[in-house]
Amino acid sequence: MRKNKGQTRPIRIIIILVIVLPVIFYVLASTIGRKDFSLPHRLAIEMLGPVQTAFSKTLDLSSDIWHHYLALVQVSRENDQLRREIKHNKKINASFREAAAVNGRLQKLLDLEQSVKDPSITAQIIGRDPSIWFKTLTVNKGSSSGIAKGMPVINPEGVVGQVINVSPHYSKILAATDPNSAIDAIVQGNRTQGIIKGNGRGYQLLYISRENIVRLGAHIITSGMGGIFPKGLAIGQIAKVIKRRRGMFQKIRVKPAADFQRLEYLTIILHRKPMID
Amino acid sequence: MRFVIFLFLGFFFIGLQTTLFQALPEWVGLPDFLFLLIIFIAIHFPAAKGAVLVLIFGILLEAVSGYFMGIYAIAYLLIFFMVKGLAAGLAIDETNLQPPIVAVGYLLANGIVYMCTAMLVQNNLMPWNWGEILQRLLIIIILTVPVSAFLEMLWKRTAKKDNSHNFLLFQPPRGNRYRHR
Fold this sequence. Notes:
heterodimer, A: 277 residues, alpha+beta, Thrombin, subunit H, 3 domains, 6-stranded antiparallel beta barrel, 3 helices, B: 181 residues, mainly alpha, Arp2/3 complex 21 kDa subunit ARPC3
């Protein structure tokens, strides 16, 4: 028995030195610091995707049961509240219709070209980034559905982020709340331009000079300047403005229009020319 | 057999952490079962098999987390070899020694991921958030003992299976089996 152990040990060491270590070094050296998916990463997301889909469906099913059966106690209260909201929304809707009509007339008057909308695709979120340091999402559509790196991602509330990696059936999205995300933006009221950057939980509006008056609650929209996001998409509302004694710019915090905690389905705009590397 | 079982377990844990655990209330935090699995692998698996498993877990996690490739793989491999080195000199497979190892390893892994990302993106980095890190650290320390017990059970059960499948070494008892009683 001892003899066998003694014989297998050098073989194991040779296997480690000749096969395992070079493979590990090769994989690490070929991937470290890259932003694109390498073949192992593409394989990894393709294999993890079905697992995440299964778990997401389980989560949906359980939350569905919770909302429809166990939360019946709250239904009557919610009903009253919803009736009040409907009344309120009807009023808002009427004012929006009027605004849309005015807008339509002004557009005709100014002879603006009708912007051609790019085709889009809806995808479901199947996974979220588990780490503290990054804000990414995984969705169940990939390059086989026409998605490519750099495409903008929105939901009915506003901007969500942009595609950073794609595999045939899944894509990874960099949320706009991630510090690596930067979007060209305009303050809707006074048309001041700035850059929206993520800070983990919300956004910061950068490069707004001290002279510009920015009001709390003002809406921030995409400027369309970066070439990634179409113009006029909702980004958020100004939540805090700090004017320091020194420095050229104001410190402005923005509350995202999209509720990143409750995202489920996203719309990916199939932009023809993705702009990021 | 063990390799495949623990590989599937890694898949399962990453699946859980990126989906179901995300629905947990914020005050609970996000339990990192994968990290506990990596520590267990470092203590119990042989170096080559363990390193390959940990590398696969790193790649799997990179596919769904962060934006730079290779960072998790490096961080986890460093932690793996560090714990492996400690395991050679200390009896850290004992339950009471594992929580401190896990705690130090977890902080170190986060530090490596943070430093590597900082080197690649400079300014565009999430601020180091001690509150959230300590919250996650507390959960992982609490979970160390039960998760280790579960993995230990799995380890022993798969060992039995390994022997029973190895029909070349397995020999049925011969003669009077009551003789030794």
